[in-house]
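help with this:

***
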Amino acid sequence: MTRNRLVIAGIALSLAALVVAAVVINHSPETTEKTDVTTNAAAKAQGTRKGLAQSSDKVSLTVADASGSDALASDEIVVTLNIDSGWHVNANPATLEFLIPTAASATANGRSLDIPAQYPPGRVSDITLGETAIEVYDDGASIRLLPDEENAAKLKEAGELNLKVRVQACNDSGVCLAPSDLSLTLGPAGAGTP
């Protein structure tokens, strides 16, 4: 009986997402505004994209170098989720198997790096599926990446670190947007660029 409830809840959530998507889709190409070449990439993508709203419309990343020195030489890289008010992302691990967890990954010189990540505990939200309350991250949640000596050597050689954080933003009513892979490149002195 509990499994049937979860399936029904999942179907209901999917249908709700489709209804929201239908409302958000821009059907008129004439209403798409032209953007100036100097406009930042995020604003440009938002102004010209057609289709489903994306989680990247509600979530962005910042990186703090906890040691105050070069981020690539640090033994801890802190990635902070900047989430719009009224929105959240799923915790890691996700509360239910079919939910998309927030997940960080890293590459250098096009090669995947297995850098351990410490995820914060999720906040138990008021949103429930069946009888299960969903755990989420709110604005300001931080993921800690802990490069070991081998990864630190690879980062030093590469001179940059490409971070990707997969998120699915949902509003406080439980309506979720399409997932997004948020990217950030770190170079010397912790300068992060999307």
Residues 18-48 have pLDDT under 50 and may be disordered.
